């Protein structure tokens, strides 16, 4: 029973003291919210507010932002273009170094090629436009073959790797060249054989002709010698 009494007493005291504690907390919170720091900014009055921007200012702002954005895009595109050009330049330099002959000097060969190209245009200056256009290319390519043989072969091999049609054309040219060379050798050998046979026959004829002539001369001389003897015999009886 004593335990129940003490519990009731404590519960009653707690119920009676709750509004006081709650009120003190609410007052403390309100006082804390209303309390402002020392360095807080003063609220601006209506007289200190700035005027709203005009339509012209807004338009100028938009134009400036648009121009700045376009300038940035142009700058980035120009940087990309410069980087691509630099890459192309490096690729061109590497390709030229890979194709160029090791023991070939540039200056005299380039002079020979340029002179040959100009000579082709000068020689065919009175022809039609197709011949005038193709003649410098043909003369320049031929001069390049003789002035830069290693470079010409390397370039041709590179082009053959890139374009298989050129490889087929080169094979056809090689086969045609070999067949024409064989035909030329056969004709040359047959012609030499015929010339040799004709020479042998001519030598035989030349060596066989003098003997009959000598025989005829000897016979004629004998006849001439016999004729005076007969004439002498005829004259003696008289």
TrEMBL record:
It comes from the Eukaryota. GO terms for cellular component: MICOS complex; mitochondrial crista junction. It is found in: Mitochondrion inner membrane. Residues 202-238 are annotated as: Disordered. InterPro entries: MIC26/MIC27, Mic26_fungi. Keywords: Membrane, Mitochondrion, Mitochondrion inner membrane. Residues 223-238 have a biased composition (Polar residues). GO terms for biological process: cristae formation. Component of the MICOS complex, a large protein complex of the mitochondrial inner membrane that plays crucial roles in the maintenance of crista junctions, inner membrane architecture, and formation of contact sites to the outer membrane. Component of the mitochondrial contact site and cristae organizing system (MICOS) complex. This is MICOS complex subunit. It comes from Smittium megazygosporum.
